[in-house]
Amino acid sequence: MGRYVVRRLLQMIPVFVGATLLIFLMVNVMGDPVAGLCGERQCDPATAARLKRDLGLDKPVWQQYLTYMGKVFTGDFGTAFNGQPVTELMATAFPVTVRLTIVAILFEVVVGIALGVLTGLRRGRPVDTGVLLATLVVISVPTFVTGLLLQLLLGVAWGWIRPSVSPAAAFGELIVPGLVLASVSLAYVTRLTRTSLAENRRSDYVRTAIAKGLPPHRVITRHLLRNSLIPVVTFIGADIGALMGGAIVTERIFNIHGVGYQLYQGIVRQNTQTVVGFVTVLVLVFLIANLLVDLLYAVLDPRIRYA
Amino acid sequence: MPEQHEPDGAVSAAGMGGAMDLAAAEAATLERTPGGPGGAGPRGRPRSLWSDAWRDLRRNPVFLGSALVILFLVLISLWPSLITSGNPLTCDLAKAQEGSQPGHPFGFDGQGCDVYTRTVYGARASVTVGVCATLGVAVLGSVLGGLAGFFGGLGDAVLSRLTDVFFAIPVVLGGLVLLSVVTSNTVWPVVGFMVLLGWPQISRIARGAVITARQNDYVQAARALGASPARILLRHIAPNAVAPVIVVATIALGTYIALEATLSYLGVGLKPPSVSWGIDISAASPYIRNAPHALLWPSGALAITVLAFIMLGDAVRDALDPRLR
């Protein structure tokens, strides 16, 4: 197990370097980084040249990348162009997005698995067909459409929620945005649970459990569910990174000032430091979540042993 | 040397008979009689995976329904004037946000443009982006993934790590960064971006499929008989590894259409005066209180389109994956 963890950690390094380098290059393509410093006007050429020299932007890209990464590992993500350290922006933005992601994950776990169990145990019945159709519709409708429609119905037409979230973004306000963020994954979790349950229902150990006279609820909870949920748990774990990166659309609809909002502002204002810093952290979250999922696999399924 | 698979001719022959057999297949779906009109082909002819799958698909109402929707979408994106006589760029501010009225069934949007005409013309952007991006991703992904899976070695290791790198970057985020500088008003930057970030998905599938197919006995036999690597790859492995690629690509087509709309909604995909559902939904969202119809019609069209492609992909997968039979 220890050797496996070390190998996985080593494998993460090239992926992390590659992904951050790719983002670094993309942001460099994004346009003149000092243009954003002069606001709407064109920069005076002499000022632009001096700014570039001060910020080290006259050096080749690979050298800029190395300097940047060196600083990142000492906890310095640079300064946004309004003079605020990027870490300060992160300190206000990440808690909001983490709360939003927690709400979304809770929806996936509670609603997704419940629906999956319901349909998996009643395959072919009307409730199964109905839920399956509903998941297909949810998967097909893009998140931003789901979000706008829910905002229109719940926020504007019926007045159940406030259409836009306050800067504090407490858990209570994030229920509907969290549902929107979770919607597509929720549908996948439902389908995955259903398929996995239906497959395992025919397995020998379930037949044994029934044959030795266990009550049905015990067969389902102790034997069937425990094994069927392994792929679901790994899906949800891998989804954490995707949800945080995908929150940009949901945050825009409900005006939530989280990671997506800061990134969007950074991109619109060509604030390269903000963009690279936030994306670097998101990539790290994605990689660590995936590593944890792989390790969890061994804990959940005793047949898998990492030597 | 016995051929385990039929060459592509079988598929195209089946494809050509398809249109004529539609009515017969519908009847067969109702009757569900084995050996009916949709039953086995001429006796003595070997049945390939493809002819089997096609036989299944012809009787599948989900496949027929989604194929009809897609056919209709392709038709109106080629010739929008078939079902509308209006011009999507002719707008009358005096009529802004007005509801449905004779001659304008979907009402008007915030700029006074006819929502029906714009919804019809919006199909073209979605279908073009979806089809071109999928073709690009499928070709690039299956060539890279196929070669890596076939030859293995260092190239394969590098490619696998490279796909990991691309998977670690959130797609919408990458789109925002890369497309925010583009000023061009065509679909091509969007298509290019999708190919750039989409190929690893197909390459992974193609690599796995090629590795599985490579171990088959007939590949060993062909190798023993002295066939060249190119011949083995093209004649023996590719026809048997292409099915999963087609399935994933069909489903991906739906998601690319959704992604184009999402990027256009965020303001970095297509930009006005292009006509696209994403642009229209984005433009309608501030008027959501007064003119919800301007939001609902393009959203509905978008949802039906994506749904059609995803269900088509589902049906094709069910037909091509023998384990599910």
TrEMBL record, chain A:
Pfam families: BPD_transp_1, BPD_transp_1_N. It comes from the Bacteria. InterPro entries: BPD_transp_1_N, MetI-like, MetI-like_sf. It is a multi-pass membrane protein. GO terms for biological process: transmembrane transport. Keywords: Cell membrane, Membrane, Transmembrane, Transmembrane helix, Transport. Residues 94-297 form the ABC transmembrane type-1 domain. The keyword Cytoplasm does not apply. It is found in: Cell membrane. The chain crosses the membrane at residues 12-31, 96-118, 130-154, 174-193, 228-254, 274-300. CDD domains: TM_PBP2. PROSITE patterns: ABC_TM1 (PS50928). SUPFAM superfamilies: MetI-like. This is ABC transporter permease.
UniProtKB/TrEMBL annotation, chain B:
It comes from the Bacteria. It is a multi-pass membrane protein. GO terms for biological process: transmembrane transport. Its main location: membrane. Keywords: Cell membrane, Membrane, Transmembrane, Transmembrane helix, Transport. Residues 123-313 form the ABC transmembrane type-1 domain. It is found in: Cell membrane. The chain crosses the membrane at residues 62-79, 127-150, 162-181, 241-259, 295-316. InterPro entries: BP-dependent_transpt_permease, MetI-like, MetI-like_sf, OppC_N. SUPFAM superfamilies: MetI-like. GO terms for cellular component: plasma membrane. PANTHER family: ABC TRANSPORTER PERMEASE PROTEIN, OLIGOPEPTIDE TRANSPORT SYSTEM PERMEASE PROTEIN APPC. Belongs to the binding-protein-dependent transport system permease family. This is Peptide ABC transporter permease. It comes from Streptomyces shenzhenensis. The lineage of its organism: Bacteria, Bacillati, Actinomycetota, Actinomycetes, Kitasatosporales.
